[in-house]
Amino acid sequence: MPDQPGFAARVVELGEELRGEGVQVGTSALLDAFAALEQVGWTDPDVFREALAATLAKSPEDRRVFELVFERFFFRAAEAAAAEEGVREQDDANAGLELGDAAGGVDLATLRQQIAAALRDGEESQMRDLARLAIAAFGRQGEGSGVIGVDVQRIRRALGLRSEPQPDLPVDDPRRDGVPRDRLRRFEQLLRRELERRQIERLQALPPKRPLNELDRALPTGPLQDLASVHRVVAQLKRRLKTQGQEHRGTKRRMHVDVRRTMRASLEHRRRPGRRQGEADAAAAAGDLRALRRVDVGDERVGVLPQRAARAARRVPQDALVRVHRARQRGDRRLRPRARLPRGERRRSAATPASPTSRATPTTAACGASSSSRWRTTCTRGRR
Amino acid sequence: MSGPTTVADVDSGLRSVGYLPSGSASLVGFLATKLGKPVLVEGPAGVGKTELAKALSRYLGRELVRLQCYEGLDEAKALYEWNYRKQLLRIQAEAEGTGWQEVQDDIFGSEFLLERPLMTAIASPEPVVLLIDEIDKTDQEFEALLLEVLSDFQISIPELGRVEARTQPVVLLTSNNTRELTEALKRRCLYLWLDYPDLEHELEIVKLHAPQLSDAIARKLVEVIGMVRDLDLKKPPSIAESIDWARALLLLGATDIDDETFRSTMSVIVKHRTDLDLVAERVGVRLQSPLGA
Fold first, then answer.
1. Are residues A207 and A309 in the same domain?
2. What is the ipTM of this complex?
3. Are A103 and A79 part of one and the same domain?
4. B-contacting residues in A 49-78 (Cβ below 8 Å)
5. Do B183 and A53 touch (CB under 8 A)?
6. What is the rounded CA–CA span in Å between residue B283 and residue B263?
7. Which domain holds residue A160?
8. Quick one: which of A21, A176, B53, B175 could link to B131 by a disulfide (CB 3.0–4.6 Å)?
9. Which of the residues B135, B193, B200, B219 would you substitute to probe the A interface, choosing the one with the greatest number of A C-beta atoms within 10 Å?
10. pTM for this prediction
């Protein structure tokens, strides 16, 4: 860094640009980046990029954005500097001649072979040189359309580079098994970069920045990755849902609906004279058994339960009846059934009061209330 | 042993202990030893995250202290705990007349402290490699606790005082990315994303672990693994699984990976019922047609 005073500023600018694209780059991260670069040096481009990535981009998504921004930023920075300094690659006839000669020296077929071989071996620097040769060769043919994207595809087609196997080619042709997709894409990127560079050189001005989503489209398998990210988010949510609320579970047992308890409560409800009772009687008289059942278990909501559950609910007062019966046999008359006594039985007990105290209406009411509460407690106790 | 001086040192060092690092792994490993910052290693299961920590410890000649994370991991299991039984025994053994102060001084000594991994790593007189495995399995409270430990490398015990790190441990945290880690933790770490290796790299790894396997089969194996990973599977085969497969093929004495061999040994690399069907359907067909070998 010390011998390149402007370079530290470039790294800070890169951080700015990353922030602009939604990557959270803190000042501490930038400081880390400088500390890391102190250790590994600034000269090797790959090491430089990896060191910055390790300190600035802290998730796979950030890393993806980082790659794009890094490429775009330093390409533009280099070109801007070149334009400012007036460095031209082709202003002297020599360079152009040399390139042209190299391209002219090899015929198109050999160039194709060379490029395909370089793609297969994945030699980055070789690929870059060959990209320039290819552009030079096509520039001479005068086929440039002026639109970079179109030119890239034209050159690729003319070179016969495809990712799928081409069985009609001779056996020793490296393109026969298809060019690896990622390398082909890389080669296209290099072509594009080279073409852009020439354009900038011609115009002496930087074109506006290309937005990232435009660059992103060129990245592999968008839909699949999207799906994968959706799956990941769902998995995370699922996990969170599973663990959340777990902390309440222990303390609030009552969060569950106790079906039996609810039913017993509504059974007691049923005895209260009211509109619903009358309705039920009318329905029963009309022969609507469903209405009967509904009222039988006391509440509308319960009525939609399966028959088995309803039957189970009805069984509860039967048990209670047995308990009342036994109590009476013991001579204890305090326990009074309020539910599901046969009609005759109830009338008889009402007509022939067991004790004079029960004749008075207020006392009966009190007694009834107490017995009902006793009922509930006995039932509950029986369950536990 | 003095630390490495260049990235290439780390690279060759890791290779010498039987770990073939991907491009950035050795760089980040180097930075970790130099900057003393923890490294957060993320990536799919089975790409060698834990293995990297083990290799680093072998290469640096340091002891590996491992903290395996799980849901509900707490301080008592990660930092330290008082050995209650021993304390009780001590109190019972004390003579009746001992004062409270003496007892207290007695039973809260380092003799009664049970050191858990984080404490071990910090209190160790020799520098260690601390591996905090699957940090994404813990809850956020534990992450917060970790922040304190990782930034200052010190633990305060109310009864004893502060324990400070005498040496700088190399800390690696691994995560399978099942949960987004907090920004605060990420900020303190260097980041390393390990992905499935490319074809040549994996070939190298397989050959290292199954040297008797012939080159042709090894290459085909790696190609098939690559094909399987390209499918949309529940659990794509990891590096460990391709090594297992290579060994299985060696044991079976297979001379070629044809359709039949593949079907009979497929269960080594694919472990889900639905995945098995998908792989048998897609890859099986491609093996029947001559692969460009």
1. no
2. 0.81
3. no
4. 50-51, 53-55, 57-60, 63
5. no
6. 10
7. 93-220
8. B53
9. B193
10. 0.64
